[in-house]
Automatic annotation (TrEMBL):
It holds the Pfam family PIRT. Residues 9-24 have a biased composition (Polar residues). One of its GO terms (molecular function) is transmembrane transporter binding. The chain crosses the membrane at residues 54-78, 90-109. It is found in: Membrane. The keyword Transmembrane applies. Keywords: Membrane, Transmembrane, Transmembrane helix. GO terms for cellular component: plasma membrane. This is PIRT protein. The keyword Cell inner membrane does not apply.
């Protein structure tokens, strides 16, 4: 592959620099397309918004109940009580951790939704006053 001779004034760029510019622009576009745009006003259902924390809460509650059952088995059974005494509290703590994380996640999402609504409102006000 031949490199073109550099121009005397340096205004023309080599093909390598053009490739770098386009790849840089493409990565910038890719990054900006990942973020949720303020300009799109597609309404999402409550399930679309809250499905992840609801799943985390339900899995946490199930694991917590499993830990409760295993811990109570250590009191009732005579055989293998050491296994139940080790596994029960582990499941209890993991279930409680997931349950609390999911319950804390829900108010965070609500706060984000309110901030997003305020941001969209301010953007519409700006566009109304400055586009006249």
């Amino acid at each position: 592959m031949e490199n073109p001779p550099p121009s005397p004034n340096g205004s023309e760029k080599s093909p390598q620099s053009k490739e770098l510019l386009t790849s840089n622009t493409a990565s910038t576009l890719c990054i900006s397309s990942r973020s949720e745009s303020v300009w799109t006003s597609t309404s999402r259902s409550r399930w679309d918004i809250y499905h992840k924390p609801v799943i985390v809460v339900s899995v946490g509650a199930a694991v917590f109940l499993l830990g409760t059952v295993i811990t109570s088995l250590s009191c009732l059974q005579i055989e293998n009580t050491e296994v139940y005494k080790m596994c029960g509290p582990a499941f209890l703590s993991m279930g409680l951790m997931l349950l609390v994380c999911g319950l804390v996640w829900i108010p965070i999402i609500r706060k984000k939704q309110k901030q997003r609504q305020k941001s969209q409102f301010l953007q519409s006000l700006k566009s109304f006053f400055f586009n006249r």
